[in-house]
Amino acid sequence: MSIRIGIYDFFAFTVPGGLMLLILLGVYGTFGGDPALFLLFYDLGTFYILLLILLSYLTGFVANPFLTKWGGLFEQKNMEQVVLDRIKSRNPALDVRIEAKDWGIWFATIRRENLDLAIEIDRNMAVTKMLRGLSAFLFLAGILLIANITTGRFSAWWLPASLGLFICSYAAVYESVQSKKRFFYYIFETAVSKQPPFSSTGGGGKHADRK
């Protein structure tokens, strides 16, 4: 079970890290780097592929705080409280006795009691990290494309492509925010299911997909 958790963590850092490395290569090429460097990627051995994956993971780990701030620009403040309030408004008859600030404690409890469910919930956070990394990549790629157009390396006909990159960047970060909301939804719904009247019927841990 812990291997599955490790795989989610691995891809949550490796995918954004690999995309950030591509951006660094793009910056290098845009500002006069040696084009021969790019040819090296066409003939990589197994050792160098594994090294590149490791480097992508480390880059993603280091970049994660910055990517978190990027995603935060598009999130509601106190998102966990917003999610909990929405659950309460949809179920006004329920006596919800949990607080949004305790989501970490509830998630630790879920992990201890039902690891499979915790893994299912945690997958949403992994998707969140990958999508906001993709969003940042697309946004920076759009800026690089405009820089290349400005310097005359590309023609002005590429300008609509940069706009397309910005639109795709917003779409990716929007889905990232929705995935993070689902993360909190599942935690709070599972916590609520442990309260009366659900706890007396044994209905713990079930949740429906939310948008």
Compile the SSE list and pairings:
Blueprint (H helix, E strand, L loop, with lengths): L1 H29 L5 H4 L6 H27 L6 H12 L12 H11 L1 H36 L8 H34 L19
Task: Give a written overview of the molecule.
The protein is mainly α and 211 residues long. The chain has a domain of 138 residues. 73% of the residues lie in helices and 0% in strands. The protein has seven helices and no strands. Helix 4 crosses helix 7, helix 5 packs across helix 6 and helix 5 crosses helix 7. It is elongated.
Summarize the structure.
The protein is an all-alpha fold and 211 residues long.
Mean pLDDT metric: 84
- Low-pLDDT regions: 201-211
Strand percentage: under 5%
Termini gap: 27 Å
Helix content percent band: over 70%
Features:
211 residues, mainly alpha, 7 helices, 0% strand, elongated, disordered C terminus
